[in-house]
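Q: How would the structure tokens look for this protein?
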Amino acid sequence: MNRRTELVPRFTRAERWVHRVTAALMGVCLATAGCLYLAPLAELVGNRPLVVTVHVWCGLALPVPLLLGLAFRALRADLARLSRFTPTDWQWLRAVRTRAAHRPAGKFNAGQKLYAQWTLGSMLVIVGSGLLMWLTHLAPASWRTGATFVHDWLAAAIAVVVAGHVRMAWLDPESRLGMRTGLVERRWAEREHPHWRPADPE
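A: Here is the predicted structure in token form.
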């Protein structure tokens, strides 16, 4: 196979399933939240108690795929990469700001790292605030009022950020291929992630 069209491994099956299940749970949470807070959707769907039940249980399940995925070494290694900012990441951000063509990146660029860190942080806050709203005996009324405010506005922010994430993925078919099959073209990896050294396919 020609080197420029050679496929190299990017994500393991476990990593892809963690991403898929988390994305599905997040999608259901956002959809049910829309049905709970937007009157036209609420009227269209009806059965508010069922929508609330689905929303709550999918919200509680949000961290589960990631927690189960920690059993796999490849996922732990990628989480370590996503949690660390390096000099290369600052160079990538400067390149984006100045619209430079060359944007150095390792396996993940700085934008992907920021998105991953935002997702994990917002997930913890949204689940915590949701628990305070759901289990009313956990905290006084003033705390529950604050939790409701945080939960609602953070959910709106998450919807905007997720929409941006989906848009970026839509604009990059090779990146979607990597998440769907676990493989990407070597030439894409060398262009978009020049500091990443993928393992050769077996």
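The CA atoms of residues 37 and 186 lie 45 Å apart.

The beta strands are 7-9, 183-185.

Upvote if useful.
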